[in-house]
Amino acid sequence: MASDNLHYYAHPFARRTSVGVNVGGVIVGGDAPVVVQSMTNTDTADIDGTVAQVAALHHAGSELVRITVDRDESAAAVPKIRERLERLGLNVPLIGDFHYIGHKLLSDHPACAEALAKYRINPGNVGFKDKKDKQFAEIIEMAIRYDKPVRIGVNWGSLDQELLTTLMDRNQAAGAPMTAQEVMREAIIQSALISADLAEEIGLPRDKIILSAKVSQVQDLIAVYAELAKRCDHALHLGLTEAGMGTKGIVASSAAMGILLQQGIGDTIRISLTPEPNGDRTREVQVSQELLQVMGFRQFIPIVAACPGCGRTTSTVFQELAQTIQNDIRTNMPIWREKYPGVEGLSVAVMGCIVNGPGESKHADIGISLPGTGETPSAPVFVDGKKVATLRGPAIAEDFQKMVAEYIENRYGLGAKKPEAAE
């Protein structure tokens, strides 16, 4: 049974088969791993600022980056941004986010239409009344002309009110068998599916369509995507919109998307965190990666296990060491990915006392058990399940950091041989 559980977490069995979509060389859906996406919050017309933020997001691990294209100045900047990124050696696919006048911007700025890897349109505001289908069709025709995929992104904050009203009226005429919340969910789902069908009728192939249906409440997101996944085989972009700031946004997004991902729903994800004023935009990328990694779906970065601390660990040495190693790993990963293939699978343990320290350290590739309160001031180090050294003195932390660096070089460096599995 234990081996079955390990297989279960390492290879999720419930991934829903969907149609794979090529987004600038990154495959979304099909048998491909779940893709991490993010979005800039710069004014796209600010070429320097946007290039810098796209580069930061990509270095952090974002495989797709969405940018706002809301006016002529931003549309004109897109090909320049693409060119600058390529000069920097960054081939991250750019997704254009269009609302209201996307049809006009794509038509007036063919270089923008060509430079983008995907278009994102919202059926709730692509056009209104008799202009809605016409302007939607114009964008789809542009996508066909330039051979670009499209994400049809429904958002309940900008839902097609005509469709919602129609469904509300039908529900009322039927004696209101559904609650208002259920009708809202159904309107979101139908908006996505009707738009996808229309896009295919116009001529956009199914392998050029990604759907999303974003809401801001956890239970609504789970219900909407679970039903949407039953009704279509389109690749699905997953995200809790307006998730919020800090721990609230992280917890809400992880709770909703964790459940859906475990059911095999979701081919690309974005954690939509509200950053602190002048905060680090790459935080949402880090959270997305950690969600996929802790669930066993992908490996992005070495895992550092550390105990939470208790009355036996009044010293802060283990906390400081764990934080230092984690920060070093994140800083060095862009280089390590190239220099040390496979290093993302490394596990490091930094433990604070003798209770679980030695055992946890043995489970890691390399681990240290620091002395707790009242314990002998020595720290055994374990490599591949075997004790290899005992560190003492004021430089324990620095000595262990050196051992981690040596382990990485010896195991993952060019020509290195992987160690045999511990008995």
Automatic annotation (TrEMBL):
Cofactor binding note from Swiss-Prot or TrEMBL: Binds 1 [4Fe-4S] cluster.
Catalytic activity as recorded in UniProt: (2E)-4-hydroxy-3-methylbut-2-enyl diphosphate + oxidized [flavodoxin] + H2O + 2 H(+) = 2-C-methyl-D-erythritol 2,4-cyclic diphosphate + reduced [flavodoxin]
EC number(s) recorded for this UniProt protein: 1.17.7.3
Gene Ontology MF terms: 4 iron, 4 sulfur cluster binding; 4-hydroxy-3-methylbut-2-en-1-yl diphosphate synthase activity (ferredoxin); 4-hydroxy-3-methylbut-2-enyl-diphosphate synthase activity (flavodoxin); iron ion binding
Obligatory cofactor(s): [4Fe-4S] cluster
IspG TIM-barrel domain: residues covered: 21-288
Pfam family name, one: GcpE
Domain IspG C-terminal: 304-405
UniProt KW Iron-sulfur keyword: yes
Residue sites binding [4Fe-4S] cluster per the record: 307, 310, 353, 360
Keywords annotated in UniProt: 4Fe-4S, Iron, Iron-sulfur, Isoprene biosynthesis, Metal-binding, Oxidoreductase
Keyword 4Fe-4S attached: yes
Gene Ontology BP, a term: isopentenyl diphosphate biosynthetic process, methylerythritol 4-phosphate pathway
Chain's role: Converts 2C-methyl-D-erythritol 2,4-cyclodiphosphate (ME-2,4cPP) into 1-hydroxy-2-methyl-2-(E)-butenyl 4-diphosphate.
Protein name per its UniProtKB record: 4-hydroxy-3-methylbut-2-en-1-yl diphosphate synthase (flavodoxin)
